[in-house]
Amino acid sequence: MLNLPRIMIAGTHSGVGKTTVALAVMAMLDKYGLRVQPFKVGPDYIDPGFHQIATGCVSRNLDTFFLGAEGVQEVFTRSARSADISVIEGVMGLYDGIGAGDDGSSARVAQILNCPVILVLDARSMAHSAAALVWGFANFPGGVPLAGVIINRAGSPRHLKILTEAIEAKTGIPVLGGILREQDLHLPERHLGLVPSLENERIVSVIDKMAHRIMEAIPAERILSLARRAPALNRLEKIFAVDEQAKIQLGVVRDKAFNFYYQDGLDLLEQMGAEIYTCSALNDSKLPEGLDGLYIGGGFPEMFIEQLADNHTFIEDLGRRAAVGMPVYAECGGLMYLCRSITDFSGREYQGAGIIPASCKMGHKRAALGYVSATAISSNILVDQGAKLRGHEFHYSKINDDELNGAYMLQKPGDGSCHRDGHAESNILATYLHIHFAGSTAAARGFLRSCAAYRQYRRIQN
Questions:
Q1: Which tens digits make up the pLDDT trace of 372-401?
Q2: Which domains does the chain have, with CATH numbers?
Q3: Which of 91, 273, 382, 387 could bond to 42 as cystine, CB 3.0-4.6 Å?
Q4: Active site residue 451
């Protein structure tokens, strides 16, 4: 059994300031000299980047749709055991999951991890009614107990006092502190949500201000006291209890344009035998030598499209490697990059890598969002024909897919409709589908097998 101090910071709904409060708490605890391990509920890539800046530790995603209950517990205990305290940021509202169920919700993760929950409440336009709202969250049938409340955006010290007295008197749940509206800090946003931390040069100073604001509002010892009450957890070893496959050298494109990766997925690939070499499609003139495969994750290539298009030597080297059979796996932003061209929000067209026969165009409305189940239309470098995967989509771009060999049929949970996605041909797999390798271990093995086969082919050729 492992004693792992932990708390979850959840919200009543999206937009209450949950990310801001979670970051402030993480940064505050870090300033007190504690090793803070951050986590994020759900598939989001962006918030974990901010978590890493606030704590100096790589944030991990806890997603029941991808990992299942045991997978969530394994991923959590694997990283939390080296920390003094773990802080988990929730997703949407505390009980919001897939459809009308609790799968994917913050509450479900809190139940799995037996984790104390602190509820963030947006106090704007509320007084005594705030107590009714908190009581409802605390007494929701089948729900989770609340360990405390943090009030955000109170109008004045008097308003905060009224809210605190009402909540504590009517619910018995302690109010840990509150943040005034005039002190409210905002993180910049863009079309996919918060601006990724790699792009935000001001984020360090913003998070530092957040930490000092939360220090003034909430005693760190109150947070620590709640976290230390969490009961011990069993340590699970299933996903990462794998035998190493043949050693391969895997390139991962990781820069400001492509930075959407699940760290536990990369860790699993390494555990299985991949030696990872990072590179940049923005700044490097070519790929690392000796690669047996390449992984291009999602990100925001549309925001760096001119710089990507101008890096002709990198594109040419990628084209040469792909042409001789090197496996290339591209997700979402990676799919966009592999197209012949990308048209930005202003209608300007730029050269893509030209690996797949399609063009990509940005839209001002979201094209897809949410969890999906995927079925492989044909065998590809990850899985065999008919294989089932779980993933999610989140993009504003569309591609013309008339000349593509569809990779997957995608279906939303509880929805009978399906649509074709991506391109699979020989050594290329490009798709809007984001998957978590720690929740799709068969796909991880398949990818490394494809890379190992290419490695063997190169040895024979040489």
A1: 999 999 999 999 999 999 999 999 999 998
A2: 6-228 (3.40.50.300), 248-461 (3.40.50.880)
A3: 91
A4: no
